[in-house]
Design brief:
Blueprint: H1 20-31, E1 35-39, H2 46-59, E2 63-68, H3 75-87, H4 93-101, H5 110-118, H6 132-149, E3 154-159, H7 169-182, E4 186-192, H8 195-203, E5 213-217, H9 223-236, E6 240-241, H10 243-253, H11 257-271, E7 278-279, H12 281-294, H13 296-306, H14 310-321, H15 326-329, H16 334-346, E8 350-353, E9 356-359, H17 362-372, H18 377-381
The protein binds adenosine-5'-diphosphate and magnesium ion (MG).
Magnesium ion binds near residues 46, 47 and 159.
């Protein structure tokens, strides 16, 4: 049996919860010809939202294309992925990817040949000496041309667009900007988790995409909606999860989509096949701790990335400890505190909640409390 809870893979359809409003908003903008930018920290459900939006448009018989920039280490591959994603609307992507591997074998496939005849640039992929930026440029044009040929609108999802920086992104971003502006039948959703990069590309007045697209921040999932969903899922396997236990769980994750699912998945695995049919507080606390251990590499990596930035580390520790007034209680001058806070915010590690700074990642908070303060599990969770 497929497990009730998903942690890791993007979720769609009835597994995607608490995003109906945002989905409607995004679809509305795209329908009215505006592109959209989604910004959220890692594992907040950006990919899930992008894929769900594309799926809904596909059901309405529009063309769609999904490209994950994270998986495109160089411009040529990026260009190939765009082209392949566009061709998939006519089921030509497989033929294209075979064509890339061995140039000759597929030219006899009538349909693919037809597509190539209309869009000669595709042949250029067979030439290893082609200029990468040219290929990329033409692949962006191809999106619109392909849609035009079939008289369709096309919605393109560029996931982890902030990663464009690793492809020497400045020139690519400008290229995109220039082309996209002229396209009539193409709309875009860009998503990204590197807050600072996304801001540089889309939000600040100097950014190339300034005022070009609607910016939407994806937040945690509403805890009330999550609680209902979790209870319903566990009911499917006759497990009753106590109200206080659910409150501890959501009090800890605050509706962080990935961790909430991960902890539930942990519980599910533990209980299936046993004759236990109730989940109480203790079990939640244990499941959080187990989820923590399964994430330890990820958390340690986050922590390591901060080593060297002593002020930022000190501030994170103070926030995790729950110190209310950072400016007065830290042995740092005010300027340094505000600079470090700004940096932490732009990395998506902290945010303001009711005017106080909190950690975005509950497991990072748990890690600091457990490993630095040596608090026990219930205290670290609270
Ligand atoms: N709307 C949602 N409903 C339920 N679970 C979600 C939702 N969004 C994200 N998740 C959980 O978070 C995980 C990561 O989602 P993903 O879309 O890959 O995030 P991102 O692209 O922001 O890193 C999913 O595997 C799932 O466990
Ligand atoms: Mg993603």
């Amino acid at each position: 049996m497929e497990s009730l809870f998903q942690a890791g893979r993007p979720v769609m359809g009835n597994k995607l919860i608490g995003r109906e409003e945002i989905l409607k908003e995004i679809i509305h903008y795209l329908n009215s010809g505006q592109s959209v930018v989604l910004i959220a920290p890692r594992r907040f459900g950006k990919t899930s939202v992008v894929l769900e939006v594309l799926n809904r448009f596909k059901k309405d018989d529009l063309f769609t294309a999904y490209v994950d920039i994270f998986a495109a280490p160089e411009k040529r591959i990026f260009a190939e992925q765009i082209t392949e994603a566009v061709l998939s609307n006519k089921k030509l992507h497989k033929a294209f990817s075979d064509f890339r591997k061995s140039f000759s074998s597929l030219m006899h496939q009538m349909e693919f040949k037809q597509a190539v005849e209309d869009f000669e640039f595709i042949l250029k992929f067979a030439d290893k000496n082609q200029d990468e930026l040219d290929l990329l440029s033409e692949s962006i044009d191809f999106i619109e041309e392909f849609a035009s040929k079939y008289k369709k609108q096309i919605i393109c999802g560029f996931d982890e667009f902030g990663d464009i920086e690793k492809l020497n992104g400045g020139e690519i971003v400008k290229l995109f900007r220039a082309k996209i502006q002229l396209q009539q039948q193409t709309e875009y959703i860009f998503s990204g988790s590197l807050e600072s990069v996304m801001e540089r590309i889309f939000i600040t007045s100097k950014s190339p995409f300034y005022r070009f697209a609607r910016v939407i921040h994806i937040k945690e999932i509403n805890p009330g909606i999550f609680i209902k969903y979790i209870r319903k899922e566990f009911e499917k396997i006759d497990i009753d999860i106590q109200k206080s236990a659910l409150n501890i769980l959501l009090g800890f994750t605050k509706g962080h989509p990935y961790y909430t699912q991960l902890i539930c998945k942990q519980l599910e695995f533990k209980l299936v096949g046993t004759n236990k049919n109730k989940i109480n507080d203790r079990e939640i606390i244990d499941a959080i701790d187990e989820a923590y251990w399964s994430e330890i590499n990820y958390i340690e990596k986050l922590w390591e990335e901060l080593s060297g930035a002593r002020e930022q580390v000190n501030i994170l520790i103070a926030i995790a400890q729950g110190i209310p007034s950072l400016y007065n209680s830290l042995d740092l001058n005010k300027l340094n505190v505000s600079r470090a806070l700004r940096k932490l915010r732009s990395k998506g590690l902290i945010k303001k909640e009711d005017k106080i700074n909190v950690l975005v990642d509950p497991m990072l908070k748990y890690f600091i409390r457990k490993e630095i303060f040596k608090w026990d599990s219930p205290q670290s969770i609270s």
